[in-house]
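Supplementary Methods. Inverse-folding protocol.

Structures were first reduced to a discrete structure-token string of length 293. This string, shown here, constituted the complete conditioning input.
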């Protein structure tokens, strides 16, 4: 245990100073990675904007048939050209995404109990590295439950995936899940995102909250913000704008796209905020203009 005597309590996140170890690469903290990692990260993060729009439709691995995702074979071909990354299970990709798709792939490699079980935190690694290679995955996504019963298991899962991925230059996306005993506060997300990054994840997915800019500053790898529960379009775009203003390098939207009455237009509006620096008001106006044509 570290000696706490004389411990400095005040924290300085140096919010006005950019990330110091940027080097000549457009993805935060990845300047010292080798070519294969950088190549796959460049598939995920647009080299011009340095940011990404992910579309998550991996909910079925624990929720079954989710409203809006009943027919992946119909939905995904319509949406795939309006996002940068498809985040999905191998089953959904193999059955419902055509192999001529040029979008980056974030492959869900962890799995656990269904929604029937009260505790979702006890997951395992369900996809081995060989299948991730066969799927030509650009990154592997692992759920991490900090502050939950399954915390140690999920940290072990994350570590195993990172170790396997590094052997073949496949990055890992650590997905921060909120444990039963943890609140969605900046204190929790500072803890969770930093742990995930320090274990070696190349990207961290988490939620937006107050003092988000401090969470980003303290995390040495890019943070992508999860869309979370379905919000009204105006609220979802506000959250997207605040996330990008706070330093996020992208949005991973699921329900706020596929449960929208106009999913394509919503995906495009998110893209305007992420890549073209639209404000939430400009993006909402763009969305409304598109749906009223």
């Amino acid at each position: 245990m570290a000696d706490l005597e004389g411990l400095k309590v005040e924290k300085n996140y140096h919010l006005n100073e950019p990330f110091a170890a940027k080097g000549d690469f457009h993805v935060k903290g990845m300047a010292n990675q080798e070519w294969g990692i950088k190549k796959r990260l460049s598939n995920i993060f647009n080299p011009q904007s340095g940011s990404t729009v992910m579309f998550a439709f991996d909910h079925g691995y624990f929720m079954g048939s989710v409203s809006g995702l009943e027919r992946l074979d119909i939905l995904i071909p319509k949406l795939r050209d309006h996002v940068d990354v498809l985040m999905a299970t191998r089953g959904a990709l193999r059955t419902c995404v055509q192999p001529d798709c040029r979008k980056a792939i974030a492959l869900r490699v962890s799995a656990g109990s269904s929604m029937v079980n009260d505790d979702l935190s006890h997951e395992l690694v369900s996809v081995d590295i060989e299948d991730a290679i066969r799927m030509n995955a650009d990154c592997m996504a692992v759920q991490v439950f900090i502050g939950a019963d399954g915390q140690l298991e999920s940290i072990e899962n994350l570590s195993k995936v990172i170790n396997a991925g590094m052997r073949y230059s496949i990055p890992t996306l650590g997905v921060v899940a909120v444990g039963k005993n943890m609140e969605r506060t900046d204190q929790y997300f500072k803890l969770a995102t930093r742990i995930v990054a320090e274990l070696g994840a190349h990207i961290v997915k988490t939620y937006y909250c107050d003092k988000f800019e401090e969470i980003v500053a303290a995390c040495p790898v890019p943070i992508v913000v999860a869309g979370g529960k379905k919000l009204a379009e105006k609220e979802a775009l506000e959250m997207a704008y605040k996330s990008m203003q706070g330093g996020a390098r992208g949005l991973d939207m699921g329900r706020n796209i596929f449960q929208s009455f106009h999913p394509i237009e919503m995906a495009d509006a998110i893209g305007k905020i992420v890549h073209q620096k639209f404000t939430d008001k400009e993006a909402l106006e763009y969305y409304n203009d598109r749906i009223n044509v």
